[in-house]
């Protein structure tokens, strides 16, 4: 089958959809021609404590970048995600929790119970002196308490920074310090794939370098043994005992911060992407409803972790704002075997399933017997996110999981965008395997010539992907460094938000995302800066220099290939390669584990000392026949050595 094959929405999908093809065209045109009118209307889906009178006040004009939406309105996110549902759906399940251990009991948390838990959690935070605007770091497993913690912060106006539980103590410490958290929320341990994750022990280690942290609130999850330190550490269940389950939501300005989420860029340390309250919630809730075509009463499951933006927008905020039933899964796709996802779909009668291409490819590789043994008849829609989905994986998802009757949607977006940017709407847009298709309402993608930055006017285009105007879910700044925000996203291509991705637009105006064009890797859907891995490597006493590039990997999308030059006194060995791999895991976390470490006596540099990454990429890709011009190298001979000793044959 040609990868360009079209899958048109079925009559049944069109009959029930929120948006059909004609409505998409009309509404899209209005959303870009009259953003004030369009978004002013859409924002009515949210309950405002004080209505806004202004809708859009944004500028992408260098150097005056400023983004404000609904700027004089006031609201509380949890009043929208919880309280307003109590009258109509208090007894409906808000969160289904499926634990890592398939034999352990699932939990069903109703909206009423969620209200109680969040209020109690919020009162405990208040008891610790947490104030509006204060940053609270959350380092938790995928358990409902992670959602309670996020929502409790939002209830009292504290700004949460969730750090993925797979990050190392060092990575955690950097994030805690960057946003000056005084309070950290964690659990004794997490559980993934039958193994425990020592969260509290990691926090203890991290906090050796975090002098500003005064309190650590610890949720008892596995019951594993953990050390509790004097007056600093408090058990959540002890702090919550006897605490009232009523806490009034605080009125927040639409532009007050809601959360910070650290993400990797092409240079320097991870940056704190800051999202605010009003625009983010309008956008997360509208995109969740329309893109998944969510209908009342359906069970919706996004397999991401709350440590990533997908977990923020599409496990917690979007679904709960819409009164949905959202499933939280603590485990991994291949435990106890590669049928776990499908068992959970059947067990909880999941209607909408949203995962990443890396998981799809891994499960595809495990063989069809695992998916074939499942019923899967409740499924109606399948989503994909995080990296380009290759047409083969798309077709497997469509055939084996969707049994050729489910809609498959590939959603392109980023931590920075807050919600979907380019994605099919199920009842409106025919899909093509591997394409994220068309822009969501209000999103104006442009394809630019990489060198000149000129907008390519022709429909068929290939270049870098940028966005011409603001949308409500857009990040507002880099926490503590507005200059970095401006320089990262708006300086290179003036007048546009630059995504960092390359893309192709086909003759039908469909977008095909080709991956990052900067020094950011996408490993199993996780974003990593090559600079981060390099700085971890050079922090090792035996390493003099390091350069890191990505290479195509069948399951992970991209793998991590490291070129390392040792100190003159050191000798390369397999043992040392293992030592360095473990070192990177310790410095950043297991997601940054190098796939290949090649010891190189020298790196290819220009005469001015700049490393020529293009050459390193080609060698890592095993494509060294096309190295291009190497005449500007200071020492062309290093390339022969790189090729002779390459690891990825
Ligand atoms: O390169 C794109 C890729 O993931 C990057 C964003 O990563 P992150 O901020 O961690 O957010 C991931 C979840 C939204 C993008 O710059 N990416 C994300 N979704 C897709 C994608 N690449 C291709 N197709 C997608 N659907």
TrEMBL record:
Residues annotated as binding ATP: 386-388, 410-415, 501, 516, 527
Task: Recount the PTM note.
Answer: Acetylated. Deacetylation by the SIR2-homolog deacetylase activates the enzyme.
Q: Which SUPFAM superfamilies match?
A: Acetyl-CoA synthetase-like
Check the record and name the PROSITE patterns matching this protein.
AMP_BINDING (PS00455)
* Pfam families attached to this UniProt entry: ACAS_N (PF16177), AMP-binding (PF00501), AMP-binding_C (PF13193)
Q: Which residues form the AMP-binding enzyme C-terminal domain?
A: 532-610
Q: Which residues form the AMP-dependent synthetase/ligase domain?
A: 83-468
Listed cofactors: Mg(2+)
> Which biological processes are named by the entry's GO terms?
acetyl-CoA biosynthetic process from acetate
Query: PTM N6-acetyllysine: at which residues?
Result: 610
Listed under GO cellular component are: cytosol
**EC?**
6.2.1.1
Q: Which UniProt keywords apply?
A: Acetylation, ATP-binding, Ligase, Magnesium, Metal-binding, Nucleotide-binding
> Which catalysed reactions does the entry list for this protein?
acetate + ATP + CoA = acetyl-CoA + AMP + diphosphate
List ligand-binding residues for CoA. 192-195, 310, 334, 524, 585
Gene Ontology molecular functions: acetate-CoA ligase activity; AMP binding; ATP binding; metal ion binding
Where along the chain is Mg(2+) bound?
Answer: 538, 540, 543
Report the top EC class in one word: ligase
Give the protein's biological function.
Catalyzes the conversion of acetate into acetyl-CoA (AcCoA), an essential intermediate at the junction of anabolic and catabolic pathways. AcsA undergoes a two-step reaction. In the first half reaction, AcsA combines acetate with ATP to form acetyl-adenylate (AcAMP) intermediate. In the second half reaction, it can then transfer the acetyl group from AcAMP to the sulfhydryl group of CoA, forming the product AcCoA.
Q: Which family does it belong to?
A: Belongs to the ATP-dependent AMP-binding enzyme family.
Q: What is this protein called?
A: Acetyl-coenzyme A synthetase
What is the originating organism of this protein?
Answer: Pelagibacterium luteolum
Which classification does the entry list for the species?
Bacteria, Pseudomonadati, Pseudomonadota, Alphaproteobacteria, Hyphomicrobiales
Gene it is expressed from: acsA
């Amino acid at each position: 089958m040609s990868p360009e094959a079209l899958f048109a929405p079925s009559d049944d999908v069109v009959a029930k959809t929120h948006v059909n093809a004609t409505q998409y065209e009309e509404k899209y045109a209005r959303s870009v021609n009259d953003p004030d009118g369009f978004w002013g209307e859409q924002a009515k889906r949210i309950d405002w404590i004080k209505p806004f009178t202004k809708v859009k006040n944004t500028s992408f004009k260098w150097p005056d970048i400023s983004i404000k939406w609904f700027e004089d309105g006031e609201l509380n996110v949890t009043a929208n995600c919880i309280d307003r549902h109590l009258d109509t759906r208090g007894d409906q399940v808000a969160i289904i929790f499926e634990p890592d251990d398939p034999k352990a009991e699932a939990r069903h948390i109703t909206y009423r119970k969620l209200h109680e838990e969040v209020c109690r959690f919020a009162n405990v935070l208040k008891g610790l002196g947490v104030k509006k605007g204060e940053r609270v770091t959350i380092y938790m497993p995928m358990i409902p308490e992670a959602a309670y913690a996020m929502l409790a912060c939002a209830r009292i106006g504290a700004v949460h920074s969730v750090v993925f539980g797979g990050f190392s103590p060092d990575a955690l410490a950097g994030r805690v310090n960057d946003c000056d958290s005084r309070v950290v929320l964690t659990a004794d341990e997490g559980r993934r794939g039958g193994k425990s994750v020592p969260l509290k022990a990691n926090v203890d280690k991290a906090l050796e370098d975090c002098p500003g942290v005064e309190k650590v609130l610890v949720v008892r999850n596995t019951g594993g043994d953990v050390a509790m330190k004097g007056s600093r550490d408090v058990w959540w269940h002890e702090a919550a005992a006897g605490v009232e389950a009523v806490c009034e939501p605080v009125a927040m300005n639409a532009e007050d911060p809601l959360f910070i989420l650290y993400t990797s860029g092409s240079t320097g340390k991870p940056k704190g992407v800051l999202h605010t309250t009003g625009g983010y919630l309008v956008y997360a809730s509208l995109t969740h409803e329309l893109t998944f075509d969510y209908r009342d009463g359906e069970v919706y499951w996004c397999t991401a972790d709350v440590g990533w933006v997908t977990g923020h927008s599409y496990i917690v905020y979007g679904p709960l704002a819409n009164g949905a039933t959202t499933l939280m899964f603590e485990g991994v796709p291949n435990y106890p075997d590669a049928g776990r996802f499908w068992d959970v779909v059947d067990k909880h009668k999941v209607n909408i399933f949203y995962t990443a291409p890396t998981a799809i490819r891994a499960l595809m590789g495990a063989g069809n017997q695992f998916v074939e043994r499942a019923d899967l008849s409740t499924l109606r829609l399948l989503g994909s996110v995080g990296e380009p989905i290759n047409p083969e994986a798309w077709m497997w998802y469509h055939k084996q999981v969707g049994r050729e009757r489910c809609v498959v949607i590939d959603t392109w977006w980023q931590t920075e965008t807050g919600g979907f940017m380019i994605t099919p709407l199920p009842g409106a847009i025919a899909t093509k395997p591997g394409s994220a298709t068309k822009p969501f309402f209000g999103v104006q993608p442009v394809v630019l010539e990489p060198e000149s930055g000129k907008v390519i006017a022709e429909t068929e285009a290939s270049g870098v992907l940028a966005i011409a105007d603001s949308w409500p879910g857009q990040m507002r700044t880099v926490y503590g460094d507005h200059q970095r925000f401006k320089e990262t996203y708006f300086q290179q291509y003036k007048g546009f938000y630059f995504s960092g991705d390359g893309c192709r637009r086909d003759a039908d105006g469909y977008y095909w995302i080709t991956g990052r064009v900067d020094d950011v890797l996408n490993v199993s859907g996780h974003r990593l800066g090559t600079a981060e891995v390099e700085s971890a490597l050079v922090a090792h006493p035996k390493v003099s220099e390091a350069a890191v590039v990505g290479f195509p990997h069948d399951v992970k999308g991209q793998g991590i290939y490291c070129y390392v030059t040792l100190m003159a006194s050191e000798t390369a060995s397999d043992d040392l390669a293992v030592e360095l791999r473990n070192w990177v895991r310790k410095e950043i976390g297991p997601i940054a584990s190098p796939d290949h470490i090649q010891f190189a006596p020298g790196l290819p540099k220009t005469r001015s000392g700049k490393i020529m990454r293009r050459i390193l990429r080609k060698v890592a890709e095993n494509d060294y026949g096309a190295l291009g011009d190497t005449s500007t190298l200071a020492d062309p001979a290093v390339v022969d050595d790189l090729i002779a000793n390459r690891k990825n044959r």
